Amino acid sequence: MARVLRLGRAELRVLDLDKSVDYYTNVIGLQETGRIGESVFLKAWDEYDHHSLILTKSNSAGLAHLAFKVQSIDDLAYYEKKIEEFGCTTTRVTNQTRLAEGEAVRFILPTGHVCELYHEIELLGTAVGTKNPHPWPLGTKGIAPHRLDHLLLTGDDLKTVTRFFVDVLGFGQSEKVVTEGEEELVGSFLFTTNTAHDIAFVKGPDAKLHHAAFGVDSLHDVFKAADLLSMYEVPFDVTPTRHGISRGQTIYFFDPSGNRNEAFAGGYMAFADMPTITWDASKIGTGIFYHRRELSESFQKALT
Amino acid sequence: MARVLRLGRAELRVLDLDKSVDYYTNVIGLQETGRIGESVFLKAWDEYDHHSLILTKSNSAGLAHLAFKVQSIDDLAYYEKKIEEFGCTTTRVTNQTRLAEGEAVRFILPTGHVCELYHEIELLGTAVGTKNPHPWPLGTKGIAPHRLDHLLLTGDDLKTVTRFFVDVLGFGQSEKVVTEGEEELVGSFLFTTNTAHDIAFVKGPDAKLHHAAFGVDSLHDVFKAADLLSMYEVPFDVTPTRHGISRGQTIYFFDPSGNRNEAFAGGYMAFADMPTITWDASKIGTGIFYHRRELSESFQKALT
Amino acid sequence: MARVLRLGRAELRVLDLDKSVDYYTNVIGLQETGRIGESVFLKAWDEYDHHSLILTKSNSAGLAHLAFKVQSIDDLAYYEKKIEEFGCTTTRVTNQTRLAEGEAVRFILPTGHVCELYHEIELLGTAVGTKNPHPWPLGTKGIAPHRLDHLLLTGDDLKTVTRFFVDVLGFGQSEKVVTEGEEELVGSFLFTTNTAHDIAFVKGPDAKLHHAAFGVDSLHDVFKAADLLSMYEVPFDVTPTRHGISRGQTIYFFDPSGNRNEAFAGGYMAFADMPTITWDASKIGTGIFYHRRELSESFQKALT
Amino acid sequence: MARVLRLGRAELRVLDLDKSVDYYTNVIGLQETGRIGESVFLKAWDEYDHHSLILTKSNSAGLAHLAFKVQSIDDLAYYEKKIEEFGCTTTRVTNQTRLAEGEAVRFILPTGHVCELYHEIELLGTAVGTKNPHPWPLGTKGIAPHRLDHLLLTGDDLKTVTRFFVDVLGFGQSEKVVTEGEEELVGSFLFTTNTAHDIAFVKGPDAKLHHAAFGVDSLHDVFKAADLLSMYEVPFDVTPTRHGISRGQTIYFFDPSGNRNEAFAGGYMAFADMPTITWDASKIGTGIFYHRRELSESFQKALT
């Protein structure tokens, strides 16, 4: 029973490694778990695996790759075959190419993003342990999210990438944004967990990152995160609000390289048997920003 | 790829049908979706399916049956075979035996509870619809939970029932409570969604219900639910607190027949690759009631 | 011991009385308590007095008058004398000039706003009563604030109006915004209760209203209010955020006549012995919108 | 215009000074601001004055004295006269008898508690300052309340002590608990700020402390405080709930000497013109614990 467990990691390209590590450890509040070459590995306090975020020094910001963890090592071959059948070329990334990771299957999404599937990764454990644990750890810094939550990417052909995630990887489509008469798909929200989205796409240039989202517990924590960003003088894109799509509570802001981050809480439980929720493209403002009811210019730009 | 989607429904035995319907519609805030004989069918506003709760008139309170929804109609035969191989006898419940339901596979859990698997059920849709939806509906009553969340049952042989859920139904075990030296399993928390538990068992008499839990959004909503219960003079078992196990926020109270209900929010995301969290039986007080740090007598009794 | 108890009422000019009453009763969630001529009287559920808001039909929106309730009937003469000594002319408004009100002392603030002091007003009581009360009432509509909280007005000479409130009415100044070298006072926040402001002034045209604020309980309720505004398609000025000044949580939006409203929660406790908090005019963006850290154009306009 | 500003300080007797300072600085999260002899002085981060809590080594726990801050130095003589007229003997506590304090008027309340009025105390300022301040400081420890909020004391003659606070000190009575036919006053809640109580009395032995309450911001912070108490293994008296009286959200727990503490949030705004809310003694369970609706034995004992 092959199954994609979750978005396991994202590798972000950053312009200045020191500044970026400072930001992701002190403001976001992740823990550094290792370094190799010009890459730094980080995890959130409530994640078990060795890392969910990799920062790699580069000349431009953006997403170097994203990777989904699958339920068993055998799933690699299972999905490899399905991906090839879909028409994507796959390669194997060997064990320990990056720190603490096992083998991975690598391929290019129809939207041009580099994607991997993997199962093996070193287990470090959460900050509260697995023996009579406390509900949260003392001494965290900054926003201290529970986990990497989801990515929003841009691409040109959203129908094909949606078909890839649904048919090949077994995702569900929780929500979609369509132009009049459903002629064009301009937003597609896809899930493999029971959250409203593990990955999503909006119409735009191929191979670009719109944002990487970290999961926090509640509206209160989204608001506390917003306060912290002002204390640390981090530039906001979007101050606290609710999404129509997903119903979640949110803020958007930028890392030192210009990669957009989100702190996200809430949202409904998605199930494989749910009908896809449909938004008219003319209502996308309300779908994205339920209160403001219109897209800001900045939110539509600033892709990395 | 067979998969159990969720706890789809619970059928509770109630002593007085009118009083019970009044309570579950006005205080809990479910919607009545149908009646047949001495059974009333209800759904929460955020559920798509025709019902998740059935109230059936009886001479004693308790759980008549629980049922899990599977991903496809073919999964019935798949699991039927596995259940039989495990050593449980299965029968088929025919289409429309109850209102709006398709066929089901029926069997007895190792703890004596009547359990079903099903796929088909009439789709009614949520209160906010699937077209440019608002995040929540106006005009709900009472606690207005999003959904039936989980059940806690009692039974004698928790090792076997855990093995059944893990090996046969593909659940994960998020947490367990064990006596010294892990000699005996006295609590077992099992999940098929990404919540900390979809069903759980504690050591006790076979075939009994400890509680049925409804899912609300946040601590704020748990607290509002508690206020409402006082306004409606519903008897409390446990006032607002946090669980150590699951980390969720909770209150417990009783329906007019003495069936224990819970309003539950929060909790971590569970994944199939998480290690099982272990609680020493000597710490079960903290595991269940993180603040009080000891079990109340009432919580250990009042099984139906 | 004369003392100003609170901002007791505001009279808003509205363009369409029916639309305005519909908005203030169903969206804001006030209760209509009387009508006389082209004026409608309203109170919040947690206020004891007959009304705190009066809507009066007019050809232009804005503030017709504001009024503070004083502790005893003798305080009218006490303050009357002090106001005259300050250099403002006072008149007496006779009993029952408006519905349910006793006599008032009327005068013009140095910023040109019509202001009254009063003690007598009919007591209606809160929605939960004074005998073994529940903490909140069932069946409220809309935002359902606890009370009228404060007003923000504009004016040219903020030093004089501040001196008036401090020296004549015994208010404290909790916060001020000053240009470089404290040359000019461009914002002044004044309190007579223990909240961060009961009335405030920002530099601008005389006799204008910036907003009328209603008090809700918590960030959660501010956010719920924001959701409701989207459901009712009320135009927002500012979506949920925190103030630097007062530390409160806030949203701004417009009534059908264009009068700006605020739903406000939180803020520190102000005491008569607190030093005045000072904001540099160059930091006023952060002072007003702690997250966005800059004033929007719309927030600086739309005075009525 | 004499006026009592607030409960300015409480001096608690503690059995072990080191343990107590550790608890009040690390678990409660106050800041130590000075030591003299066997007394340690502490303030909350959001208080301006030098201290609000004094811990003094003693052979028994309890309240050594409580003190109210008055608006001006002249108020000392004003109240001194009124107190003497009421029939209480006053003495003057000279400047610097304790650290950082000016002169005080000392007297015994009708319930036997030692009480002082003062105006002068050294100003230290809050942790966020008064120049373009952030809304809250980074780096606080433990519960980190904003301020000392109120005291609940026990005494025999509540009518007389109420009359003292209302007639002599100008307090209002927000709520009262009375036996059938209002024959006896068994609970009295009194305010001088706009909070529901600055000091309260319940029927019991004279000169005893029921609890000292610290003010936090919200239900969320009460709950976070409860989590912290479990992490630090502090004994609870009452886990999170709502008060009927005051409507506030609350937890009760014990300091290392057995003095009961409360973390308190919310509650309505009290005004001098509010009618007194009345609770029947038979409803006191609901009045104190709105969810549980009955008093626990422990809550009625454990006076210090």
UniProtKB/TrEMBL annotation, chains A, B, C, D:
Organism (species): Niallia endozanthoxylica
Family: Belongs to the extradiol ring-cleavage dioxygenase family.
Domain VOC: 6-120, 147-266
Name the UniProt record assigns to this protein: Metapyrocatechase
Entry cofactors: Fe(2+)
Enzyme class: oxidoreductase
Assigned keywords, A-Z: Aromatic hydrocarbons catabolism, Dioxygenase, Iron, Metal-binding, Oxidoreductase, Repeat
InterPro entries, per database record: Catechol_2-3_dOase (IPR017624), Glyas_Bleomycin-R_OHBP_Dase (IPR029068), Glyas_Fos-R_dOase_dom (IPR004360), VOC_core (IPR037523), Xdiol_ring_cleave_dOase_1/2 (IPR000486), XylE-like_N (IPR054560)
GO molecular function list: catechol 2,3-dioxygenase activity; ferrous iron binding
Quaternary data: Homotetramer.
Signal peptide: none
Catalytic activity entry: catechol + O2 = (2Z,4E)-2-hydroxy-6-oxohexa-2,4-dienoate + H(+)
Protein EC: 1.13.11.2
